[in-house]
What does this fold into?
Amino acid sequence: MGRRRALEYDCAIRDVLDRIGDAWSVLVIMELSKGPCRFNALRRVIEAISQRMLSVTLRNLERDGLVSRQVLDTSPPQVEYSLTQRGASLHGAISHLAHWAETHQPGIRTSRAAYDAKEPIAS
Amino acid sequence: MGRRRALEYDCAIRDVLDRIGDAWSVLVIMELSKGPCRFNALRRVIEAISQRMLSVTLRNLERDGLVSRQVLDTSPPQVEYSLTQRGASLHGAISHLAHWAETHQPGIRTSRAAYDAKEPIAS
DNA sequence: CTGTATCCTCGTCGATACTG
DNA sequence: CAGTATCGACGAGGATACAG
It folds into this structure.
């Protein structure tokens, strides 16, 4: 799955990062945390995602029991995705990290700018 | 910097995940949280990492002000890396996620096994 | 010891076309 | 509407060689 396993070192955290470290999983989780959503509705909200990646991302999340997939018996058939309890729990944990990120983002941006200023693109 | 930016959507959290979502940053932070460490010492601890990736990872962490680089005036010259306060703070946030991971890993493994059992490798 | 530069492989993802 | 299959392009990263 994805990139080569780093080590046995800290399996648990790596498992999670392998899942949410990718570009889209977090966005999907964030969106689903607002409530259930159908496939194409998600596509519209997360504009930049390709059909393939949304499909892959949802399947992986479902596989880990973070998202549940409910086929609605309508015509044409619709599929509704929603966070499971575990998914909601992960959303909470992510929020914690997101809070850290928001708190420290200004400082990080400053650090980056300072660093880049000293190492001028090295052409 | 890795992959294409997803969206403006949730910049802060994406910034962090772009940094720690990769295979090595978390391991480096974990290791440095135990105390300062030199380049090759890190290499030995994180066996699977290539020289190049350790270098790249450390530089990125330094750029974000998460790790500080201290050149020791010895012969031959040595370089000691350590977590900054911000880095230590991030380590705390990661630990929170790691705790979630450890708590839920058994359930996730179970879910995966159940899922995979239903979708037999499709060869 | 602590890196950087180059090359090359291999996985990842977007585009496209097609199915239920 | 909700996907899957195939293909091709791109880029991350390992190996290696070299530099300070």
